[in-house]
Amino acid sequence: MTIAAPAMMFDNVLLHNGLVTAFATVGIVMWVSSQISRRLTKGRLHASAIAIMIGLGVAYYGGVVTGKEKGLADFALFSGIGLMGGAMLRDFAIVATAFEVQVREARKAGMVGAVSLLLGTVVPFIVGALVARAFGYSDAVSMTTIGAGAVTYIVGPVTGAALGASSDVIALSIATGLIKAIIVMVGTPFAAGFLGLNNPRAAMVFGGLAGTVSGVSAGLAATDRRLVPYGALVATFHTGLGCLLGPSVLYLATKAIVGG
Fold first, then answer.
1. How far apart (Å, rounded) are the C-alpha atoms in residues 177 and 151?
2. What's the rounded mean pLDDT across residues 192-213?
């Protein structure tokens, strides 16, 4: 048996177990990200933020090399990433997160948490819609989809699919949400002192205003890990609230203002 034979057998195993390969790849990326976070930034830049930047980088590389549209998943060896990152596991993760929310605990946020949740949904939507308009997207569907993406990167595609938005607009909404998540992840530790993020109530208000579960969780983890459950508790509701308001109230309001 030649030296190349075991390598070929290993490649075949990876190719025929695409989803397992995808989980292993993500695990390796997360391990590398955690090492970079701990050794180079002393934990100030959370591993999740580094992992997302690595993911965006390799996705761009995959698109450039293959000339296709699925990023790293366009390589046969990493085709399972397309399934892992698809709607099925995404929706499963959302449902799993929602099951962790206890209504009794959510009530502790009080009226302040409810108001911050509403503001954290409406204000980013308005900003995202205005930016979309500034870049030439003047129809209500596109403005609503991109504005919804500014709420979270999940609300954007859900809203766009419900309204029949084009694929490029949906992609922009996802990119908008990812940029927001990264900004929250990276900026939270630096702004924690100014925002007074040193108690559970402040963390819940912050989670409501920021809105992105991944960004809030990673940002608070880099600030004070004890605050993560409180921030994520309120931020978790953003996806459901955004998916409810995006294709309905927010779309109708946008259509009433801009027409079409």
1. 7
2. 83
